[in-house]
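Researcher: Here's a chain I'd like modeled. Treat it as a single chain, no partners, no ligands.
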Amino acid sequence: MRKSDKKRSSSLLGAPVRVPLKWLAATVALAVVATTGPATADGQGHEPGVEPTPERAPTSEVSWLSFPGGVFAVDSLGHTVRYRACDGDTGRVADPGMRVAAGVASGAVVVGGTAYRYRVPLVGRAEGTLEVIQRHRSPTTLTGVVVTSPQPPTDPIAGARLFPLSGQLARVVADASLNPAGATVRDLSGRYGDQQIAVNGSLRPKAASVIKLWILVELLRRVDCGQVALYDGVLVTPEDVVGGTGQLQFETFPQVVTLHRLARYLIKYSDNVAANVLITYLGGFAPVNALIDSMNQRSTILARRMLDSAAAQRGEENYTSPDDVVSLLGAVWDGEILTPASRDLMIGFMREQTLNTKIPAALPPGVPVAHKTGDLPDASHDVGYYLIPGTETAVAFLTAGPMATGDEAVRRMARTVYDFLVTPSEGAVEE
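Model: Modeled as a single isolated chain. Structure tokens:
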């Protein structure tokens, strides 16, 4: 969540959050990070069960502008933009006249009689503007924070103290010889200057049930737009029932199920019936993929329903990466894609997760986490938030290869991050 929201939301997430006064350093950070990305230890080759990451622009070339109810995405290398908000979606639009200078993309496009004139910095945490001009109406000027993947640190000096964690995670990844693995970690508390680090952050395994996070965000985005309400009901029929994880498969159908229960079960029980029903309710794969595209998350795609083995055999598969997961989690936390109320609801569902054999099992009892697992015979993941007061952190641990050894690799990565965060000699920053 944005820094201004943290104190308000601390009652829901745990003890009050301590936010260091580092705003002066943030100004320096924006100048420093224009040509830097996260601390990484990437370099994996193409492994079985891992799709090559699609060609994508450097981090500094893609950004999106966050404003109430929507986003405006910019790809300055591809010279494309996309407006997606409560009042509509332009899709990806070419802007051959886009101007890129001094780290800022600017231009104008006309779609369906509406003009979109923009000035969007290519450095995260800066401020951008979008003017929406329609006939016979006064222009609307939207301003907001610019989001990149990763977001630059607000304090590079404090952020540097997180760098040793990269080496520790790299050793765990190297030891997981049967499982190509990747981890991305972002400080959310300010304690480490909101720094992001990654080891194989672009690894692209099958997404498994981690893809359900994007389904939930698209639903909650529509709630925020006033297009649907969580008390609305959806008819679930016997034809919607599939196996695997979840609780709805054990109920009697047909019956009407509220969107709230579908959303909660989607995360709490990783319910496959809920996932498939919500995909249909939202209009299929396209709207979820439009959400993904609007946030410039190039490694993630929803291409099949849960337990659709025929689609999988045809090569239709869901994929993601640690970097894309943390991009989503960070945007949710910072209030850049959902309202505070929907953000808190989503994190609340993640705190209720009942599949707790990975991150929670690796940590001491009682450590507050909100997370979402993903399991396939050739993939094992766990992603989410460490909610340790004063050291809130977004994490994504993804693996390919045998699930059993992948589970252990995830647990080792999860414990490595926890030990770093709570060990003063290695991870803590004295205030």
